[in-house]
Design brief:
Elements: H1 2-19, H2 25-32, H3 41-60, H4 82-98, H5 102-108, H6 114-133
Amino acid sequence: MNILINFLLGILFGAGLTISGMTDPENIIAFLDITGRWSPNLIFVMVGAISVTAIGYRIIFFRSQPILNTKFLLPPKKSIDRPLLMGAVIFGIGWGLNGLCPGPAIAGLFYLYENTVYFVISMLLGIIGYQLLKPKT
């Protein structure tokens, strides 16, 4: 049952990305093109997402445990370190060059755009490569 609920929440998230136009790389590239045909659409999506998240966090943390799990799963690290910065730089470069990030790319697979398919394949290969090469702790 938990898997089904998470699947449906993922569908809802993907639908929101699609309706807002965030699965179209042109919208992202237009937002990043501040000297050309700049489009503010992404700002409205970000403000909406941040607002919903802020309200959700305020409500959810009044509970002793989440609804669909036995405990809250929060990142243990609170510091900014080299791997975080390197990941942010790699993400930013990829996002700027292609106009895609993981969530919208997966939601955008529905359209079967060639660049989106290549992006998702490359992303999956990167995830697998990292898992194979990361130091064992």
